[in-house]
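Title: Prediction job returns without error message
Component: structure pipeline
Severity: low
Priority: P3
Assignee: unassigned

Description:
Job completed but the reporter wants confirmation the result is attached to the right record. Sequence as submitted:
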Amino acid sequence: MLTILDRYIIKNFLGTYVFSIILIISIAVVFDFNEQLDKFLRNDAPVKAILFSYYLNFIPYYINLFSALFVFISVIFFTSKLADNSEIIAMLASGTSFRRLMKPYMISAGIIALISFLLTSFIIPPANVVRINFQNKYIKNKAVTYAERIQIQIEPGVIAYFNRYDNNDKMGFYFSLDKFEGQELVSRLTANRIQYDSLYNWTIYDYAIREFDGMREHITTGTKADTVLTIVPSDFLISSNDFEQMTTPALYKHIQRQKDRGIGNIQSFEIEYHKRFASIASAFILTVIGASLSSRKVKGGMGLNIGIGLLLSVSYILFMTLSSTFAVSGLVSPLIAAWIPNVIFIGIAILLYNRAPN
């Protein structure tokens, strides 16, 4: 059962969290609008699209992006205020231990972590599709529409190769498809051009099929034929923000599918997948650090606690950026990269928790 004290802390925690989000996001929207205004006018972006396609989806994306930071700042701010007003001292003097005092903090962190995970996993990705399409059309097109020297495993023993592919025309050039049984090549299809039609449906032009049977070879040629290949252009045309448009189940399936096909440049997708789970733990870790750090009344007042909190926040973001860079370069696995900041800050949380007033 929640006591009056529990409800008081939860109300302050969540209230400060929501207030800080509204404040920071309002500033971010103003700055972004000021920066993008020339592009909106130059590309004749409709007002309705700006409001509902871009900013309506811009706000939840950035709220979730900086959710951990908002949690930390909120805890530091309102707990420092409680300590400065001697409310923490009164709570502890009444017989409430610091461990018991952390219960409403953990409940609040759990609520935020659950909402954040649901947003990241199921709500924000479809919204990002609309936002990114708007950005590509009216701000800056970052979509990948061209690739060269593509080699991809369609299924075990079947390897496809494109010398180049242009997604504007849905056309690939100098295509080959090799089929193996064990280590032995049993057939090879080559085509001057191949065009994508719809899901798994392709059309090959000026093709030749060579089938091998021991020392015998059978050749079939033609000018045009429809064929089924279980690949789509998005399997090899990978943009930097593609993972932002996938729900967590879809992201997991995409990662497994690309691994099965031998595609190696999926580190950013794996990092995003593991970060979505690591962010749940980060909400609790940063809450413990913030509460432990700011629960003691100090001579410097709230300003000192907030300053230390901001320093730790910047450090946390720095560790996330560095670890992600290491994962992309292949120095560490994406799983380790996503959890390195949490592991480091768990140590800080334990240290500060043990030094908190009781």
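Comment from assignee: result matches the submitted record. The chain has a mean pLDDT of 91.
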